[in-house]
Write a structure and sequence with these properties.
single chain, alpha+beta, Immunoglobulin-like, 3 domains, 5-stranded mixed beta sheet, 4-stranded antiparallel beta sheet, 6 helices, elongated
Amino acid sequence: MSPFRPVRVSTGLAAGALVVLAACGRTGPDDGAASDSSSPTAGRTTVQEQDRSARPPDGSTAPPGTGDRSADGTQDGTGRAGGGAAGGGEDPGDGADAGGGTDAGEPDAGEPGGGGAPPAPPRVAPVIGGLPIGPVGPGEPGWYVALRAGTCDEESLAGASAQAAASLLCRAAETNDEALWAQGAAALATAPAPESCHDVAAVAMLARLVQFHQDHPQDVPVLGDTPGTACPLSVTGLASAPEEAGGPALPVPACGGVPVHLRGNVQDPALPVGSVQYVTVGPVPVPIQWGTTGPFFVAPPAPVPEAGGTAPVALAGSGYALEDPALSTVSLEYAPGATTCPAPAS
């Protein structure tokens, strides 16, 4: 009789019985039957036996891979490599992991679902209207262009009716220096009344700065675009070439056909191209063209070419405020000439 004859153990057999039988050198009762070494099952255990042999001695049914292993790089009772937290291997559900962190399943204060208040939104400085386009033409005050560009030194602002206030408040708006705000507000209150259209726009913007600081003492302002212009668009001269300064009256042939370049604040490069669509020459509307040297138009024929004469020129067709045509001081001076003129090219 073979002392280690394998037998099929029923599923109801307790794991502890296997241990007792194995200690006695037997895997089953000795019924006196000889071992059949030719049987296909000889020398191997069944799947059920392998399953039971993997169970711990206490008879528990913990699945393989979850049992304790030795400390030489194996799993602990939680099934995690390397063992649990020192002193008992608490699992993550207890609020602590191997690294000592908090339970990921419990939101911290400030997280969604937590008890903390949400973070405050980023602070956005209020926007106030800055200086509008002048416009500023040749010979007109350069201080307005400097202030609009954020140049704050008092020398650059010479000529402004509120020169000192403009310099102080310009610097205060950049630095939020309380002393500059106080000095600038006092200087503005004692500045002479503005007279020019540029001064009126500048003083209005400085007053907005003072009010802004009273309402938002912790902030510095963001200056936004202000629509329109400080002054009406106007023409103060006419020239026959881009490099000429021009004058109030420009001689032209009786049949016209020559370019006429506009002078005045309409030349300001701050104005968008196409700010003015046409001029009137006498009663005749003539389209304006915008070149790299500024706006110009082509002189039309004189109303009565053989007689010549003077035709006033005024701006027309614009979304900006324009000088009153009745106040225009520029004109084309037609020389008398041909009785008829060729038809303009289409």
